[in-house]
Design brief:
Radius of gyration: 16 Å
Helix content: 25-40%
Largest sheet: 8 strands, parallel, barrel
Strand order of the largest sheet: 1-4-5-6-7-10-11-12
Structural class: alpha/beta
Distance between the termini: 8 Å
Order of helices and strands: EEEHEHHEHEHHEEEHEHEHEHH
Number of helices: 11
Length: 243
């Protein structure tokens, strides 16, 4: 079980949004590379990064900040935001990203996900961000008519490494992960699922380690780590003891 600390990039800075709203951004660090190194030094084993500007633009925008992180840390990094074609997938993987996350294109161009997953086994994840059960795209600005399960099932045999499932209503709100929806998705598919959106306290870590969550790969934590609601040492110790 992996606890992924999150770095969301906006204008080259490390921020957290509330419910995916770019106008409700809190800047937590002006130096994302330093933040990444801090997470590595604290003992985390995998970093989750999102290029927020890229998600809206449909192409990488904060590449300089991402590349700076890659030069500072040794632990694996997964990246999403603005990855809409195979050339971008290849470019990021060649620069040292361990796993790319395809979100909008997974809804609009499922063939891209299948092609990328086949070409780069184990290195392509799908990001499914749901608002009221329906998947949102284009940086969460547009809500589609399909459910996360509808999309996830398209990729059952495609070799996708993981599904990252975010409940937008909870993201950045510190209301706790939507465990019911996340676990229901995990139970319905064979692809490992990563929980995201609203992780608020050590109780969420304990829930992640509970028997009903055994099919999950882990969870992503953002704001709760930045504002001290979760002590990294305590969280990582719990995870280690549960192995």
């Amino acid at each position: 079980m992996i606890l992924f600390p999150a770095i969301d990039l906006k204008n080259g800075q490390c921020v957290r949004l509330e419910q995916g709203d770019m106008t409700r951004a809190t800047v937590f660090n002006l130096d994302p590379a330093a933040q990444a190194k801090s997470f590595e030094d604290q003992g985390f084993e995998y970093l989750h990064v999102v290029d927020l500007d890229g998600a809206f633009a449909g192409k990488p925008v904060n590449a300089q900040a991402v590349e700076a992180m890659l030069t500072r840390v040794k632990f694996p990094v997964q990246l999403g935001g603005g990855i809409r074609d195979l050339a971008t997938v290849e470019a990021w993987l060649s620069k040292g990203i361990t796993r790319v996350i395809i979100g909008t294109a997974a809804v609009r161009d499922p063939a891209l996900v299948k092609e990328a997953a086949k070409k780069f086994p184990g290195r392509v994840a799908v990001g499914l961000d749901a608002r009221d059960g329906k998947v949102a795209v284009e940086g969460w600005a547009d809500v589609s008519t399909v459910t996360a399960l509808d999309i996830a099932q398209r990729f059952e045999d495609a070799g996708v490494a993981a599904i990252i499932f975010t409940d937008i209503a909870r993201d950045g709100m510190l209301k706790g992960i939507n465990w019911d929806a996340t676990i229901a998705l995990a139970d319905a598919i064979s692809i490992p699922v990563i929980a995201s959106g609203g992780l608020a306290s050590i109780d969420d870590i304990k829930a992640m380690l509970g028997p009903r969550a055994k099919k999950l790969e882990g969870a992503i934590s953002g704001r709760a780590l930045y504002d001290g609601r979760i002590d990294p040492a305590e969280a990582l110790k719990l995870i280690k003891q549960a192995v």
